[in-house]
Design brief:
The chain has 575 residues and is mostly beta strands. Helix content is 3%, strand content 38%.
Length: 575
């Protein structure tokens, strides 16, 4: 795994530069509207299997703040085609997006995918029309400029001028049976039994079931098969289940459960799950840890495309937020998991397993989790892990198992027990691209049968083809700097830089943070610390500029980790 190994990396091939260069994209930097579209030179002479033939580019399942770009192709057997991206709000100035990722056809765990380019636009405005320009180039032949349009979805809300129907426990059944699109069922304080709702709203006129302080549902809320129904402000002693729901909004609820919290076990679509407090029955102790531990329940669980799961506080489950696995995984793409506060998950903080492409795990905070973010496996990618902050991880910050393919890790901060970045199965993972992350570990141990290492900064023995890491910060409170990256063992930062793709890696310690941060032992549970970097510290100005991801950074380059130095702490959990 030498320095030149990056040539094969999906991200570098897509981004058109070596691992040390700024990623280039059409349109230049933020607000660069003066530049023309990129030149499209189809002068290549290779042809044949190496030339690219593009299919139909699409923007499937827009969410509230992100757009997915999917462009299938044939050809390009040598993987040297690129697609650069620029975008703008209708009538606005062009901005550079991150170039699309080249995803070769592949298969794992019974799933297959075709050759494609794929990627996302991040941090967009809700309910806004965008124009996207894609420039495909291949030196072997194949060049095309495509312009697409799509709109982000609005944040779900009741219809303007909606009829408000006052409801009490004794009148709820009749009011629910008679509800019409656009109605707000205003539930008074009181105790309500479990219910199955049987009416549908429309996208423009949803039916809203709204509670107040003291509105308690003693049992499950069932929204199976419902369309455009909102459950808002309820206290639920049980679960909210929505098998097959479309356009549902589940917001501002307080859920206490001994099973799952908010869940669909079948394909649902475009649901919005936000600002809930979901508390499960799994205790945070050693016996609970791992797939076979004494744990129960999924805090929030979905399958199907277009879901937005944001700003929830989820505590005390087997998995905090999860997708379905194996045969249950259906159309798991264009899913946003953003701004959540995830605590005391005895298996995975976020289980993004069997993501088809463009699941975006962005800006979440994990405190006391066995595994941080799971991709077991990614199905070609990209599966995005961006600006997440993790403290008190026991085993692995990123669970890249079952031959995961196509994971992207950008600007994450990890402070954990044991090895700083370790993956301990023999499943070979491949085509990962990580930049601008911070990983800090220290002395490890064995917990419920799982050994988290002895303080290596990297322990990635199963790293396979095109695993490309660079511009990351690593440290261990053991005082040593050692580890293994694929077939390469190293005992110093200089060896890591010289023998692997981590040419620009830096060494960091707990003093990299502005606040005092203690080394975490797994138990008892912790209060989440402030992991923002210290001004002028080792993490400052050491990152790679990535268009559409870290635009507007301060200083000469982006800072490593989830935060820029001096920035405000984001809101995690309910707003």
């Amino acid at each position: 795994m030498g320095r030149n190994w990056t040539i094969a990396c999906l991200a570098i091939a897509a981004c058109g530069g070596s691992s040390g260069q700024m990623l280039d994209a059409p349109g230049g930097g933020d607000g660069d509207g003066a530049r023309p579209p990129p030149a499209c030179d189809d002068a290549g002479s290779g042809g044949g299997r190496d030339a690219t033939t593009p299919g139909a580019a699409t923007l499937p399942s827009p969410t509230i703040r992100h757009l997915t770009i999917l462009w299938p192709i044939t050809g390009d057997a040598d993987l040297d085609a690129t697609v650069t991206v620029r975008y703008r709000a209708a009538g606005g100035m062009w901005r550079a997006g991150m170039p699309l990722f080249r995803v070769p056809a592949g298969a794992t765990q019974g799933f297959t995918w075709d050759d494609r380019f794929a990627g996302s636009l991040f941090d967009l405005e809700p309910a806004t029309a965008y124009e996207i320009e894609l420039a495909l180039a291949d030196p072997d032949g194949g060049c095309e400029l495509r312009t697409l349009t799509a709109s982000t979805r609005p944040v779900p809300a009741a219809a303007a001028g909606a009829r408000v129907v006052a409801v009490t426990p004794s009148t709820f059944a009749a009011a629910a049976a008679a509800a019409l699109p656009g109605d707000i069922l205003a539930l008074a304080a009181g105790s309500y039994p479990t219910f199955t709702f049987a009416r549908d709203g429309t996208a423009a006129a949803p039916i809203v079931i709204r509670g107040v302080t003291g509105t308690v549902i003693n049992g499950d809320v069932r929204l199976d098969g419902r369309r455009y129904v909102h459950a808002d402000g309820l206290t639920v002693v049980g679960k909210i289940k929505f098998n097959g729901g479309v356009g549902l909004a589940i917001t501002r609820n307080t859920i206490t459960t001994t099973e799952d919290g908010i869940t669909t076990k079948t394909r649902a679509e475009d649901c919005y799950i936000a600002d809930n407090v979901v508390t499960g029955a799994t205790a945070w102790n050693e016996a609970a840890l791992g797939a076979s531990g004494a744990n129960v329940g999924e805090g929030i669980e979905v399958t199907g495309p277009g879901h937005v799961i944001e700003h929830n506080r989820v505590r005390g489950f087997r998995d905090g937020i999860s997708l379905l696995e194996d045969g249950g995984a259906i159309d798991q793409y264009s899913i946003d998991i953003v701004g959540n506060d995830i605590l005391e998950a005895a298996d995975d903080g976020v289980e993004a397993d069997f993501c088809f492409h463009d699941c975006r795990i962005v800006g979440n905070r994990f405190t006391d989790v066995f595994m941080g973010a799971s991709s077991q496996p990614g199905l070609g990618g990209p599966t995005w892990f961006v600006r997440n902050a993790m403290y008190g991880v026991v085993l692995s910050a990123f669970k890249l198992q079952r031959s995961s393919v196509g994971d992207v890790g950008l600007h994450n901060t990890v402070v954990k027990h044991g090895d700083a970045f370790g993956i301990y199965t023999t499943d070979v993972f491949s085509r990962q691209w990580f930049r601008n992350n911070l990983f800090i570990g220290g002395p490890g141990g064995t917990f419920n049968g799982y050994d988290n290492g002895s303080g290596a900064v990297l322990e990635l023995r199963a790293a396979g083809a095109a695993v490309d890491l660079d511009h990351d910060g690593y440290g261990s409170t053991t005082g040593s700097f050692r580890g293994r990256f694929g077939g390469v063992a190293f005992t110093s930062l200089a060896e890591l830089q010289a023998m692997t793709t981590e040419v620009h890696a830096v060494e960091v310690g707990l003093t990299v943070f502005a606040a005092t941060v203690a080394y975490p032992t797994p138990f008892p549970a912790h209060v989440a610390p402030d992991l923002r970097p210290a001004a002028g510290g080792t993490a400052v100005d050491r990152g790679l500029a990535v268009p559409g991801i870290n635009d507007g950074f301060a200083g000469t380059a982006p800072d490593l980790g989830a935060y820029e130095a001096g920035s405000s702490l984001p809101v995690y959990g309910p707003r």
